[in-house]
Predict the 3D structure of the following.
Amino acid sequence: MKRKRIIFDTNALISAFLLKKSVSSLAFDSALMKGEIITSEVIHKEFVTVFFRNKFDNYVTFANRLELVESLESQLLFWPENLIKPLQICRDPHDDIYLELAVASHAFCIVTGDRDLLSIDPFYETRIVTASDFLSLF
C-alpha cells in the first residue's frame, strides 16, 4: 500500500519541535508512523531560516536546533525541485510553495495553522488541515 505524502508548513514544524507535547508534535509523530513527510529545498530553507531566528533562543539552544534540523533532514523525503512547477494561488505568495509541492507530489494533505491556506481546502486532491484535524483524519 502506498504511504500517504504529508506536508508540514514551517509554523507547524516549528511548533512540533519547540512544544514536544503540542498537537503539532503529535501530528508530526503520527505522520512519521503512518505516512511520509515530504518537503522541498525551498520549504526546508525557509524552515531553517525561521527556526534559527534569535527569538527562539529562549526555547532551544542553537546547538539543539542544529541537532533537531539534522534529525529532521533524515526523516523527510525531499521532492526533486525540477518536478515542482510554480503556481500563483494564495493571497500570500509565500504560501504557494506548499501548494506547488502538493500538486507535484500528489500529497494527501498539508498540515498548517495558516488561515489563508486553510481557506482553500481542499486544493485539488490535497486536504489542507490543522494539526488537530490531521490527527482526526489519520
